[in-house]
Amino acid sequence: MLAVAAVTQSTDDPLSGLHVGDIDEPPVPEDWVSIDVVTCALNHHDLWSLKGVGLPGDRLPMILGCDAAGQAPDGAEVLVYPVISSPGFQGDVTNDPRRSLLSEVYPGTLAERVRVPAGNLVPKPEGLSWEQAACLPTAWLTAYRMLFTNAAVHPGDTVLVQGAGGGVATAAIQLAAAAGLRVWATSRDAAKRDLAKELGATETFESGARLPDRVDAVMETVGAATWSHSVNSLRPGGTIVISGATSGDAPAKAELTKIFFKQLRVIGSTMGTRDELARLARFVADKGIEPQIDSVLPLAQARTGFERMAAGDVGGKIVFRV
Ligand SMILES: NC(=O)c1ccc[n+]([C@@H]2O[C@H](COP(=O)([O-])OP(=O)(O)OC[C@H]3O[C@@H](n4cnc5c(N)ncnc54)[C@H](OP(=O)(O)O)[C@@H]3O)[C@@H](O)[C@H]2O)c1
Asked: Which of 33, 87, 107, 173 is least surrounded by Cβ atoms within 10 Å, i.e. has the fewest?
């Protein structure tokens, strides 16, 4: 089948290890189902895998991808929930120490077919296109949990979204605006700041710019490049939720003094639960939210999407049609 895989890894030239072509179809484990993928989407996670972050080299070749929407064997239209728990684990799967995402241990979604545990399916919301549906399982789920589970923000609160152009960031802007929050967003790029406004941001700022007021919560995925700004932008008692560190995980200043003196909360966030994905899907459908898509490419042209993401040149999700 046609699939997109990591065959080698390189920090400096991650795309040198990208294979787009025919791959033997992996077997379907017991109690798992094979989904015919209609659309799948790219995440920064796929670039990290090509760089050797989070995917040990002895698991190569590995089919990449965490996001998919498609058809189940019974014909149902579904979203794939990509978090795989360890056998017998009970409770919030994001706290399972041996959980994995599709493409870390089990082959991922950037393929004609993907195998998942039968319980890892969520109905595709009616009214969402296949392309929009493929955006939800990773970036949108992450943004949903960051805002509503971990920051626990309320309508009227002000939330700052760093790095407005990214998949998680555009999702956070759209979800926060739909939930009645005042959304401020930063980006390095003027066109992405304009996009953020179109998506519902109240105000936008250049990365690192001094804000007119302190915010209640910051959605942080950029990491080192924006960390000090995130700490400095919070009101006393405010919350940073961090789910990524695209620009690196070693900021020049950890800002420890400000964190304790202002009694800030720093909360790590990873993906979300299957129930959160189901609630997200309902919220997006009920509110008529249209997930921001940067571009749609045939799966066979996946390399172009990877190149755009590696260059930091995205405004929303890059989606592949199978
Ligand atoms: N923990 C989790 O479960 C989880 C889930 C999803 C994603 N993540 C992580 O969250 C991060 C974002 O993921 P994504 O899929 O949204 O990625 P993406 O679509 O590639 O977005 C990355 C964004 O980072 C921003 N950025 C700002 N300064 C940067 C710099 N100096 N270098 C590079 N990028 C910079 C850019 O925004 P501007 O150009 O607008 O400034 C860019 O659009 C990744 O690190 C990813 O691994 C984690």
From this structure: 87
